[in-house]
Amino acid sequence: MEPFVDPGKKFETKETYTGLSTSKLTCITCISKWFLRNQNIVFRSVLTSLVFVIFVLIAIRNGQDGLSREVSFRLTSLENTVGDLTQKFLEEKHRADTLFQQLTSLENTVGYVTQKFLEEKHRADKLFQQLTSLENTVGDITQMFLEEKHRADKLFQQLEKSRVKRRHNCHKAHDQTQTNVATSVAFSAYLARDLDNLGPDQTVIFENVTLNDGNAYNPLLGTFHVPRAGMYFFTVTLQSFQKRRQWFTLVADRQMQTELLFYPFGHQMATNTAVLRLNEGQIVRVAASEKGVSLQNGYTSKFSGFLMNEC
Ligand SMILES: *[C@@H]1O[C@H](CO)[C@@H](O)[C@H](O)[C@H]1NC(C)=O
């Protein structure tokens, strides 16, 4: 029979290796001693098997414990990692939310600006259309103005041409008459003596003549005889010495042309002019308009006239 070589020592080494506590080792030592004392082979075998089974069970349990500790440790570490990641994820989510809000706000702003831009563009387009229409109107008006100007220029040219023609004709007529009659027709005469108590339509005779070109003024009758048709200028100045109202007139033939009026203040002067287109042979004179009027002699009572032109 082979001696049972130090099975306790074997187990002890194994137990120490698997990390058993001192109380467990003591128990195992005592069981081993008891086992060595027992000489029954069957009993020993059964017991050895039992011990072996127990050892295996203990080893399994210890292994399980270690594993569960490892798993727990890893789980905790994983939990921590998950926690950290969750934290980070929440932070990132918060940042992303903030960014999303900013983006939304930016989008709104962009939308608003786009809207405004479109509105402004619409307004600008409208203004541009109005401007174009205005430009067209201005163009039309300019065109019309140019046409009217052209017409006016043409009319002006025609007028100028007719004027030149008329002047030319006038000069021709003038040159023709120049050979027959004296060119200048002009006279000036004043009262040589006081006139008193003149009657209606009585001619005022300005006897003292200072000028009588063309001899058209008759100082004996006080009448101017139109030598040839044309435009004549006359001026009359009278002085009254009476303190009463007095009327005088410049007449061409029987037609009154100009009036002179005095108010009753004494030694008043009245004057008037007449520009007349006259025909050859007409008679121009100054006449009293009412009964019993009077005039002061001298240069203060004067009748003058001249031919302006024959056209
Ligand atoms: C009028 O003319 C005459 C003769 O030339 C002259 O003697 C007389 O003084 C003149 N009369 C006046 C008021 O000047």
Description:
There is one protein chain. With 311 residues, the protein is an alpha+beta fold. It has two domains: 38-180; 184-309, Sandwich (Jelly Rolls). The protein has three helices and twelve strands. A five-stranded antiparallel beta sheet has the order 3-1-12-6-9, with no helix packed on it. Helix 1 packs antiparallel against helix 2. The longest helix is centred in the middle third of the chain and has 140 residues, at 41-180. 2-acetamido-2-deoxy-beta-D-glucopyranose binds at residues 192, 208, 297-298. The site of 2-acetamido-2-deoxy-beta-D-glucopyranose has 4 residues, from loops. Residues 180-311 form the C1q domain. It holds the Pfam family C1q. This is C1q domain-containing protein.
Estimated radius of gyration: 75 Å
SSE order: HHHEEEEEEEEEEEE
Report the span from N to C terminus: 185 Å
Question: Would you tell me the structural class of the helices and strands?
Answer: alpha+beta
- Low-confidence segments, given as residue ranges, are 7-18
- Which descriptor suits the 3D outline? rod-shaped
Per DSSP, the total helix count is 3
Major sheet summary line: 5 strands, antiparallel
Helix-strand layout with pairing:
Layout lengths: L6 H12 L3 H16 L3 H140 L5 E6 L3 E4 L9 E6 L3 E2 L4 E3 L4 E10 L6 E7 L2 E8 L6 E10 L4 E6 L4 E3 L2 E12 L2
Antiparallel strand pairs: 1-3, 1-12, 2-11, 4-5, 5-10, 6-9, 6-12, 7-8, 7-10
Helix pairs in contact: 1-2
The structure holds 2-acetamido-2-deoxy-beta-D-glucopyranose.
